[in-house]
Design brief:
The protein has a single domain, classed as Beta Polymerase, domain 2 (2-Layer Sandwich), CATH 3.30.460. Helix content is 46%, strand content 13%.
Length: 210
C-alpha cells in the first residue's frame, strides 16, 4: 500500500477550473464515504480550498487508485476527466509526505507563509476522521504535517520571507538523499519526527538556499 496525493492547484490549473472543481463543505461526508468505498482506496482526506483541490489516500494499487480518484473528481464536479487530466499532479509515499508538509507550512501557497492553510488542513483531516475515512496511516501523516506547519511559523523569516531552518540544511547534507526535491526554502520539523517515519519514509527535508 502507498500514500498518494492527487490534485490540482494554482500552480497547475487556471482559477476558473479550480472553481469548477471546488468541493462544498456540505458535500464532504458523502464524498469521503464514496472515496473509501472504491476498490483501490482504503483511507482518504479531501483538501479543498480556493486555490487547490487535493485527495490524499492510502492506495491498495497505485494505478487503480489514480483511476478511482480521477473518476471521483469528475463525478463530483461534473467536469469531464479530459478537461482537467492535464492539470493533475500525483505524488506518492515520500513525495506525498513532502508535498503535504510544504502545503501545511504555507510554502506552496499563493502568498508564501500564509497561515490560513494550516487551519484548512486541520479541518480537512478532522472531517475525514469524523467520517471514518482517515485511518491510522493518514492520521499519522496529517498529525506530523500539522506539527511541521506550526514549527515552520515559529522560525524567524529570512530576508526573502520564507522560514529558515539551519538544522534542516544540516540534516539534508548529512543524509545525502537524492530522492528529495531541491527548493529555495525549508521548513522545520521536530527532532522526534524522523524515527516515527523511518519505517516508511526518509526524513522529509528540503535544501535551503545559500
Amino acid at each position: 500500500m502507498s500514500v498518494v496525493v492527487v490534485g490540482l492547484s494554482h500552480r497547475t490549473a487556471p482559477l476558473e477550473l479550480l472553481e469548477r472543481m471546488a468541493m462544498r463543505d456540505e458535500r464532504l461526508p458523502k464524498a469521503l464515504g464514496d472515496l473509501v468505498a472504491r476498490d483501490f482506496l482504503s483511507e482518504a482526506v479531501v483538501l479543498s480550498t480556493c486555490h487547490r483541490v487535493e485527495v490524499y489516500a492510502v492506495a491498495e494499487r497505485f494505478h487503480g487508485a489514480m483511476a478511482d480518484v480521477r473518476h471521483f473528481l469528475s463525478e463530483l464536479s461534473f467536469v469531464p476527466p479530459e478537461d482537467f487530466a492535464d492539470h493533475l499532479y500525483v505524488h506518492y509515499d515520500d513525495a506525498a509526505a513532502a508535498h503535504l508538509f510544504s502545503v501545511t507550512a504555507g510554502l506552496d501557497s499563493v502568498v508564501v507563509g500564509e497561515t490560513q492553510i494550516l487551519g484548512q488542513v486541520r479541518d480537512a483531516w478532522e472531517r475525514a476522521r469524523q467520517e471514518e475515512a482517515a485511518g491510522s496511516r493518514l492520521s499519522l501523516l496529517f498529525r506530523q504535517a500539522l506539527e511541521v506547519g506550526k514549527r515552520a511559523r515559529t522560525r524567524r523569516p529570512s530576508p526573502g520571507g520564507s522560514p529558515r531552518c539551519p538544522r534542516l540544511r544540516w540534516r539534508w547534507r548529512r543524509s545525502g538523499s537524492s530522492r528529495w526535491p531541491t527548493a529555495t526554502w525549508s521548513c522545520s520539523v521536530p527532532a522526534r519526527w524522523g524515527p516515527a517515519w523511518s519505517t516508511k519514509w526518509p526524513t522529509p527535508t528540503y535544501r535551503a538556499a545559500g
